[in-house]
Amino acid sequence: MDASNTETLTRSQAARRDRVLRAALELGREGGYDAVQMREVATEAGVALGTIYRYFSSKDHLLAAALVSWVEDLERRVAARPPVGTTTTERVLSVLKRAHRAMEREPRLSEAVVTALVSPDAGAAECQRQLTVVMTRTISLGLGDDLDPVVRADIARTLGHVWFSSLVAWVNGWSNIGHVSDEVEIACHLMLDHLDAR
Fold it and tell me: Whole-model pTM?
């Protein structure tokens, strides 16, 4: 069984994996990166320690997967309540500000999942790819359908990279949370303002 591929999991396996993710998120929310210990996660999730390792190769893999899950939830919320704004820039900023606010509300958890995602762990690296795909789709919801699909994906992916690199700077203490918002806004204006001037 490939436990890293969630499409191959049975319903009970998916439920256990989800409990593990939620337990990691809760521990990270309370105490940050250092508080997420695999034994604690197992206890919190009500599973055996070995069960966690069937789904996640390491703590960094687990936390990185939790971030992917978090962003997938953001995508669902944005799809259910589409971004508002009279310009493309305003709509995309609306999406990115939702992501930004979610991270700002949970600073310890944000630090934990971003730290894990940038680790050299192989499982975390796969989560980096997944995060890029999900965040690209999420940002694309603000871009509309009148752009060439390749251009739309390129813009969304690039803005996702700006958002994430700004988060890395924040959690590593190079900047503050306001800087994340500023960087994203600058990038959106540079990349999107011309679209509404056509």
Answer: 0.86
